[in-house]
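pasting for the record
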Amino acid sequence: MQWLSLWISLCLCGVGLCNVLQEKQVDFGLRVFSEVSRSSPYKNIAFSPYGISSILGMAQLGASGSTLKALTSSMGFSLQERGTPRQQRLLQRDLSREEAVQLISGVMVDRKITLEKSFRRGLGKAYQSTPHQLDFSHPDTALAVINAWVSDYTEGMIPNFLSSGTISEDTRLVLLNAIHFRGLWKVPFDPRLTHERLFHCANGSSLSVPMMSMTYRFNYGDFVTEDGVDYDVIEVPYEGDSLSMLLVSPFEQDVPLSAVTKGLGGHTLQQWRKGLRPVNRQLSLPRFTIDAELDLKSSLTQLGLGDLFNQKNADFSRITTEEPLCVSKVLQRVKIEVDEEGTKGSAATAAIVFSRMAVEEIALDRPFLYLIQHKPTGSILFMGQVNHPQQH
């Protein structure tokens, strides 16, 4: 059987139809995260919402029939519609203009197959990506090339994205999208104010962690879920004000984070934005580093995309007509580091496709969500949950 691989990361947008496209991408990314969180309620998670939307958008360009219908139905948009690839290109362009963000898309194709012209054109229009040939009959060499590509474009934060054995002689295509983010806080935390403090973990244990502290006029809001769970959201801006981190945590210490992540979607983010207001608060936030690897096949299947992985039903005939292809895995690796100066993060995602063949204090001393957002467009670069700050 022949394999095809896809990878993911992030992007942003401008106005008009671009906003509609971005809203759909944000909503889909948040719904995937909600599924990931549901299956791992007590683990640390680092995830790229735009990443999964971006790579499955690339897959859309090669999909046909029921596979295309499933993708567009679940994601809420189609990159095969007239004008949409240009909007996607504008999203990627807008994100790339941010000084703190490095973003690139790439395509590695086996030299034995010929790609359909429409697929090539779509990749160029939507992602400014030109396919590069690899010899997958030598999988270890191809793996080294792909991992070097990811390492280069994540500034070395993700040096070995795919493990040995992920690529085989049956691999036919790898769609790549990598992002590196280095954001400095608009107002850095003073290291002299960082002190040890108890953090109450999701499993009921407590541990002492280095807790950063700052008093500032933050955008802040308190909200209630449909199930009546109270929680608050506080926004910490990065230098330049176009990017920020949203921190979300239930009011009550014994309320699980899953009570907030349940049903998370684009409408939730819109509700937060409307409800935030500037207030003086003292924020206490633990330093943390998360290095997460996710297999997203199960989460995507729960969202109605199981046929992508079905050797009998998957239809990627717009990629090539020489042999049938289907997805075998969707993988994502995200590493994020948060300290007094700011945030450094990198993401790569892969889908392996094969032949069908004193002020009031906000103390985040319990599990919380974090989201890194591009404010002008609403795009979510990274997000995740922290259940144990000292577990990477």
